[in-house]
Design brief:
This protein has 485 residues and is of the alpha/beta class. The protein folds into two domains: 273 residues, no CATH class; 184 residues, no CATH class. The protein is globular, with a radius of gyration of 22 Å. A hairpin with a 2-residue loop joins strand 16 and strand 17. The longest helix has 17 residues. The structure holds zinc ion. The site of zinc ion has 4 residues, from loops.
């Protein structure tokens, strides 16, 4: 048996003022043909999991295209069409028995609000009745179209996402069962009129902890093939945005519907717990300075790189410089400042206008003065629990010593999901008093075990927790908390 493997992965923040292009995919995760296996076979992501699962289930993988970009703005029509064409061409060229797809579920292109629904329909048109099993991120905004055209959908069960590899393995096991004729899938799906913010979606904390515990019990029912809860992604202003539940059973529609209804009711009853209030910037900085515990993590919630923000927000940097915070580290994506610092050279003192250049929603550029302490190629490999063994490329990276504050300037915005990001630059996070993370929850995979105090800061930006301040136009209404329900 031979099974095609491929995917297109992007979380699209429709409030971002920049477009995501083909180069953004090339710069992050991109492989075609046999390079997919060579590059990801030993990585603990979906593909690494599908690879092991294929060996255990005795089918060969036929690699096609895998492309992923760092979460960012709407994907251009040209980029989506090019990626989809390549994937579909490869599917047409080869003869195989099924398709394993790695998807996100909250990708938006200029010509498709629900890219995964659109892509799955196109794949279905090409492969006919052959089975399609796809994985999705827990932040997916699932649609009925996705559920219709995939045979089985399997979502991550964790946030931070530390089970990606296991979901890949699970997808391959299910593909094996379908190919051996052991199961006949029946599926139920429901959207819930609820937008939840990332901070409230941590699966090791209430309310998600209880919801996912019940989900796991349901999936353990021998009649169930898979049960997934998608917390949704509120920064994609699309009709299908919001939480949802999908349960696939073995030839038992009624059971699938019952379980979906139960999970939907459980989530809906807890809707108030999916809203949060954060600490004002001034107060957060004062609390961090006064803390006896260290490191203190200042969470720059609204400039969440993993949520599609620019990663060049300056509000916390400005406030920390103003109070001369010591033993503090802040990262900012700013290619122009990196080039200027490198031109000046090691040990030189430079004055730079840093950050706030992508848009006006995350603070203005600010003037900083510091010594160029280190220049790096910006490459490091994840050693922690999230995306383990993935190579990250920040682009050229500079550490500027601003009188006790380490300002990390990188060419490309890079998600703070692994402590190697700082360690590769000679910065030991455990020795710092204050670490600013541009992330909502996933930073915990890097610093959760060393954090002594965590302060979620009410910074401005396109990943704000104050959803009512965002200019929604397309999301289905009524929906909580935009509307009273
Ligand atoms: Zn996610």
């Amino acid at each position: 048996m031979r099974v095609a493997i491929g995917g297109i992965w992007h979380e699209t923040n429709t409030f971002a003022n920049t477009r995501t292009t083909f180069d953004d995919f090339r710069a992050y995760q991109f492989a075609r043909g046999e390079w997919i296996i060579k590059r990801y076979r030993d990585v603990l992501n979906e593909i690494g999991g599908m690879y092991i699962g294929s060996r255990l289930n005795n089918f060969e993988l036929e690699p096609t295209l895998f492309a992923g970009a760092v979460p960012s703005g709407i994907v251009t029509r040209e980029t989506y069409e090019r990626l989809a064409d390549w994937l579909l061409d490869d599917l047409l060229k080869n003869d195989f028995d099924g398709v394993l797809l790695v998807l996100h579920g909250a990708m938006v292109a200029e010509n498709a609000q629900d890219v995964e629904g659109d892509l799955l329909r196109r794949v279905r048109d090409v492969v006919g009745r052959k089975p399609i099993v796809a994985t999705f991120d827990i932040h997916a905004n699932l649609s009925a179209e996705m559920c219709e055209d995939a045979d089985v959908l399997i979502g991550y069960n964790t946030y931070p996402h530390v089970d990606i590899y296991e979901r890949g393995t699970q997808a391959a096991h299910i593909m094996g069962k379908i190919l051996r004729g052991e199961i006949r899938r029946t599926v139920a799906f429901e959207q819930i009129p609820l937008l939840s913010v990332p901070q409230a979606q941590n699966t090791s904390q209430s309310p998600m902890r209880e919801i996912m515990a019940r989900r796991a019990e349901i999936e353990n029912d021998a009649r169930v093939i898979s049960a997934s809860v998608a917390v949704g992604y509120p920064y994609a202003d699309v009709e299908c945005a919001g939480m949802s539940v999908v349960v696939t059973t073995n030839d038992n529609s009624e059971l699938a519907r019952e379980y979906v209804r139960e999970l939907r009711e459980m989530i809906w009853a807890r809707r108030d717990f999916f809203q949060v209030t954060n600490v004002p910037v001034d107060e957060a900085v004062q609390r961090a300075l006064a803390s006896d515990e260290e490191p203190v993590i200042l969470v720059d919630v609204a400039d969440n790189i993993g949520g599609g923000s620019p990663g060049d927000g300056t509000i916390l940097l400005e406030n920390l410089l103003a109070v001369e915070a010591q033993d503090t580290v802040v990262t900012i994506a700013d290619a122009e400042s990196v080039a200027q610092a490198i031109d000046a050279g090691i040990d030189r003192v430079v004055e730079l206008r840093v950050g706030g250049k992508t848009d006006s929603m995350h603070g203005a550029p600010i003037q900083v003065r510091g010594r160029v302490r280190l220049i790096s190629s910006g490459e490091y490999v994840h050693k922690g629990s999230y995306m383990t063994r993935t190579m990250m490329r920040m682009g050229r990276t500079v550490v500027l010593d601003c009188d006790g504050l380490d300002l990390v300037l990188m060419e490309r915005k890079t998600m703070p999901f692994d402590a190697q990001q700082l360690r590769s630059l000679g910065i030991e996070p455990a020795d710092k008093k204050i670490i600013v993370v541009k992330s909502a929850i996933a930073w915990q995979a890097a610093y959760g075990d060393i954090a002594r105090e965590i302060i979620y800061v009410d910074t401005p930006g396109i990943c704000t927790a104050n959803l009512k301040t965002l200019p929604y136009k397309h999301v289905w209404r009524p929906i909580f908390p935009l509307d009273a329900l």
